[in-house]
Amino acid sequence: MADHRPVDSVDPNNLPEYGLLAQYEDVTSLKQACEQVRDAGYSKWDAHSPFPVHGIDAAIGIRPTRLPLLIFGAGATGTTVAVLMQWWMNAFDYPFLISGKPLWSLPANIPVAFELTVLFAALTGIFATLGRNLLPRHHHPLFNNERFARATDDKFFIAIEAKDGRYDATRTRELLESTGAVAVDSVPDDSKINASLPKPLVYFIVASFLAGFVPLGIAARAWFTKSAEPRIHLNPNMDFQQKFKTQSPNPLFADGRSMRPDIDGTVAEGWLRQDDAYYRGLDADANWLVGFPQQVEVSQGTMARGQERFDIYCSPCHGTAGYGDGPVARRAAELKQAKWVTPSSLHQDYLRTQPEGKLFNTISHGIRNMPGYGHAIPESDRWAIVMYIRALQRSQLATTSDVPDSERAKLR
Amino acid sequence: MSSAVASHEIDNTRDDPTRRAQLILGGQDFHTVTEMVAGIPEQERINRNWWFAFTLAVSLAGMFGLNIAYLFWEGTGIWGNNNPVGWGWPIVNFVFWVGIGHAGTLISAILFLLRQQWRTSINRFAEAMTIFAVVCALVFPGIHIGRPWLPYWMFPLPNQMSMWPNFRSPLLWDVFAVGTYGTVSALFWYYGLIPDLATIRDRAKTKIRKFAYGVFSLGWTGSARHWHRYERTYLILAALCTPLVLSVHSVVSFDFATAQLPGWHTTIFPPYFVAGAIFSGFAMVVTLAVPARAFFGLQNLITLRHLENMNKIILATGMMVGYAYSMEFFIAWYGANEYEGFTFFNRAFGPYAWAYWIMVSCNVISPQLFWFKKIRTTPWMMVIVCIFVNIGMWFERFVITVTSLHRDFLPSSWGYFSPTIFDIMLFVGSFGLFFTLFLLFLRWLPVVAIAEVKAGMPAAHGHHEEHGHEAEGAATHG
Questions:
Q1: What ipTM was reported for this prediction?
Q2: CB nearest A90 (choices: B167, B183, B219)
C-alpha cells in the first residue's frame, strides 16, 4: 500500500512502490490483457499506447466521457454572450442609428454569434480535456521505467497502481504475467521527492502571473482618473496633410474655393442626348410628346419587342393584361402588406388619355412606389413598351366596329 | 531518397478495385514511422540547403519588419493606394494569405469528418501552413489601419470615446472571424502535436531537448483514458472547425459583398471565395509538400497518391472557381444593371484586361492539365501547375479589388492603380515571414502526425505485420 510518511523521511534508495508495469508487443495482446485485468476487478489501472487503440475503451471498461455536454454548454454560452453583447453595445449602451434601421436586428448579429460559439466551445473542449486528463504535469512515476519510453513509439503497456484495493505485489504480478506480457516491472513511486516543481520555476511562474496584471492596472487607473494632458498621439504627421480640404480656402483660385464647381455646360461622355423627344418624351414646347418620336418605327416588330419587354419588366406587378394584378401584387394582397402601394391598372381613364411622352417618362423615372427602369431598359425598348401599352389599352376598350368585317361574323 | 523503397508496392496511384490502395509505402511498422518523422528534428546538423533557405527567408522577414517600421513612421501614403483605389495590395495580400490557410483546416477537419484516412500523412503539414498563413494575413489589416497605435478600437473594449464598435460592419465580423480562426487553428494544431511531442521527448538524448519537448508535451503518457477524451474532443473540434472554415472566407467575402459597389455587390461571393480559398490552399500545400518530402525523405509517408488526391481537389475547386467567374458575367448581363455590366466588361477588356486574363489562364485553364494522370503524378509538373494557381489566385483578389474601384461613377475620378516599391517589398517580405516560420517548423517539430499515421496502419487493428517487429520485440524481452 502507499506510504504516507512525511516528505522529509522518504529515502531515495528505498522508495514506496507505484505499481506494476507490463509490456505487450501488439494491439491484440494488449486488448486481451486489458479484458483480463478488468475482469479481475481492478480499478486504479491504465493502458498506455502510442496511438488510440480501437476497442480499448470496452476492454478497459472506460465509460463515455461527458465532455461533449460541457462543450455544448460552452458553445451555448458563447452564442448568448455574443447576442447580449451586441444588443447591449449597439442598441442599449450606445445606440447606433444607421439608415433608420432597427437598433437591434438578429441577422446582423449572426456572424459574431457564430464565431463566439465556436471560440467558446473549442477553448473549453481543449482546456477541459487537458484538465480532466490532469495535464499538464511535469512528472509521472512511470517515466522512471526505461521501457516506458517506447509507450510513445511502438510498445503497449498496462500499469496497475499499488493504491488499488485489490493490489498484491505477488498476485498482481502473476496475473500480468499470465496475460502474455513480455516483461513485468515494479515501478518505484518517486513523486514525493520529484513531483514538486523546481523553486526558481515556481518563482518565475508567480512573477509572470503577477506581471500580467500590470498593464491591466495601468489601463484601469487611466479609466478612473482625470488628466489634463492631451491623449497620447504617437505620430502627428497625418494631422497636417499637404492638401486642400473640401471647405478650406484656396488662394490658387479667384473665388478662393477649394472645391471647384462644374464648368458650365459640362456633359459626361456619351450623355449629351440632345433629342428631347426621344430621350425625355418632350415636344418642342416642353410639353409631353403625343405620338412617337421619329426614330421609333411603328411596326409589328416593335410591338412584339414591346410585348416581350413588358412581360419581363412590367407584368410582375401590373399583370400581363395590365390590370395591376401581377403575381407580386397578388402576393402582397394575400399577405395583407400594410405599406404596399397597389400597382395601377393601365386601363383607367387618365392613363388611357395620357400622352405617350408622359408614359415614357414614368417608365424611365418611376412614379409613387414604382422605381425607375431607365437604368435597365434602353430608350428604344421603353418606347416599344409604350407602344404595347397603347395596344393593351385599346384591346380592353374595343367595340364591334374595331373587328375586321371578315372576323365579325364569328362573334356571338 | 529513403532506403525502404524496395517494397512490394512502389506505386500506389494505380487503382485496383479488388484492394485498397496502401496509405503509406515501404512496408513500415510503428517504429520505422517514428524513426522517419522523429528523425528529422533529431538530426544533429541539418543540411546546407535548409540553412540557405532559412537565411533567405529571415532576410526577407527582416525586410518586412523594416518596411512596417517605415510605414508606421511615414503613414499609409507610401503605398500606391489613393482615390479612387483606396483598397490596394494590403487587402489583396490579406485575402490571399487567409485563403491559403483554408486547406489546412479543410484537411484536418472536413476530411477527418469524412473519414478520409489519407489526410493523416499531410494534416500536420497543412495545419502548420494554415497558422503561418493566418499570421501573415493578420499583419496586413493590422498595419493598414492608419493609426497603428489604436488597434484596440477594433475590439469591443471600453475606450476614451465611450463608443462601441459597429456590429453591423463586416469589417468587425472579420476581426471576430479571423481572430477565432487563428486561435482555434493554432490550438487544434497544438492539441494534435501533444502525443507526437511526447514521442520526441521520450527519445531525447540531451537535457535541453528533454526539457523543451517535455514542457510542450505536457506530460503525455499515452494513457487509454486520456486517449478516450482526446479523441472525443478531437472529433468535436473537427465538427466545429468545419463550419468555421466555411464561415471565415464567407465573412471575408462580406467585406466586399455588402458594399454597394458594382463588381463587389454579389451574393455569389461567399461560396465563390470559399472554393477559391480551398483551391489556393491546396495548391500551396502541394507546392510546399513536394520539395519537403524530397528533402527529408518522406516519400513513403507522403506518397504520390496523397499528392494525386490533392491535385484532384485542385482540379475540382478550380472548375468551381471557373464557374463562379462565368456566373458573375451572366448575372451582370441578366441583372440588366448598366453599371454592373460596365464593370464586368471593363474587367475583361478594359485597362486591367491583362490581370483578368492572367487570372483566367492560371485559375481556370492551368488546373485542367490535371486531367492527365501523368501531370497529376509527376512531382515537378504538379508544382509548376500549383505555382500558376497561386499566382492566379493572387491576381483574382487583385482583379476583384482594383478593377471594381478604379472606375468610379464619375469619369473625372477614374484612375489607374500602380503599386509602389513599398507595396512590393511588403508582399515579398510576407513570404519571408511565412517561410521563416515554416522552415523552423520543418526543423524542430514532427512534420507528419505520427500517432495518427500509426492508428491508420493495418497493425493498429490487430492485423499482423510481416516485418522486423517480432525480432525486435524479442530482443527487448531477452
A1: 0.90
A2: B167
In A224-263, the residues whose Cβ lies within 8 Å of chain B are 231-232, 234-235, 237-238
With CA atoms as reference, the chain B residue closest to A94 would be B163
Domains and CATH numbers, chain A: 17-188 (no CATH), 276-396 (1.10.760.10)
Cell of A144: 522512471
Lowest mean pLDDT among A286-290, B372-376, B458-462: B458-462
Mutate to test the interface with B, among A129, A156, A377 (most CBs of B within 10 A): A129
Nearest CB among A62, A135, A377 relative to B220 is that of A135
Distance CA A222, CA A201 (A): 33
Query: B221 contacts in A (CB within 8 Å)?
Result: 48, 140, 142-143, 151
Q: Which residue, chain included where needed, has cell 502541394?
A: B286
Minimal-distance CA residue of chain B relative to A48: B223
Q: Which residues of A touch B452 (CB under 8 A)?
A: 51
- Chain centroid offset of residue A341 CA: 35
d(CA A355, CA A293): 12
- By Cβ distance, the residue of A93, A115, A126 closest to B233 is A126
B102 falls in which pLDDT band (50, 70, 90)? Answer: confident
Across the 412 residues of chain A, what is the mean pLDDT of every consecutive 10-residue run?
Answer: 47 83 92 92 92 92 93 97 95 86 88 96 94 87 90 92 90 91 90 78 92 90 83 75 87 90 84 89 91 92 94 93 92 84 90 93 92 91 95 86 78 68
Which is nearest to B317 in space by CA: B93, B99, B94? B99
Q: Which three cell numbers stand for residue A387?
A: 407602344
Residues in chain A: 412
Assess whether pLDDT exceeds 90 at residue B110. no
Distance of CA A326 to the CA centre of its chain: 37
Residues of chain A found within 8 Å of residue B476, distances taken between Cβ atoms? 23, 147, 155, 182-183
Query: What is the overall mean pLDDT for chain B?
Result: 88
Q: Rounded CA gap, A135 and B218, in Å?
A: 6
The mean per-residue pLDDT over the stretch B429-453 comes to 93
Between B463 and A27, name the one with better pLDDT: A27
Write down the domain spans for chain B: 30-475
Q: Which residues of B touch A154 (CB under 8 A)?
A: 29-31, 34, 469
Q: At what angle do helices B304-334 and B379-398 cross, to 10 degrees?
A: 30
Residues 91-150 of A with CB under 8 A from B: 93-94, 96, 98, 101, 108-109, 111-112, 114-116, 118-119, 121-123, 125-126, 128-130, 132-133, 135-140, 142-143, 147-150
CA pair distance A68, A63, nearest whole angstrom: 13
Q: Which residue of A has its CA nearest to B183?
A: A119
Sequence-ordered list of residues with C-beta below 8 angstroms from that of A161, at least 6 positions apart, any chain: A18, A19, A44, A45, A167
B152–chain A nearest CA distance, Å: 12
pLDDT of residue B4: 43
Average pLDDT score over residue span B194-208: 92
DSSP labels, A324-336: S--HHHHHHHHTT
A212 phi, psi to nearest 5 deg? -60, -25
Give the range among B108-122, B171-185, B316-330 with minimum mean pLDDT.
B108-122
Measure in Å the smallest separation between the Cα of B216 and chain A Cα atoms. 9
User: Would the pTM count as exceeding 0.95?
Assistant: no
Neighbours of A161 (CB within 10 A): 20
Instruction: Name the strand (E) or helix (H) holding A47.
Output: strand A45-48
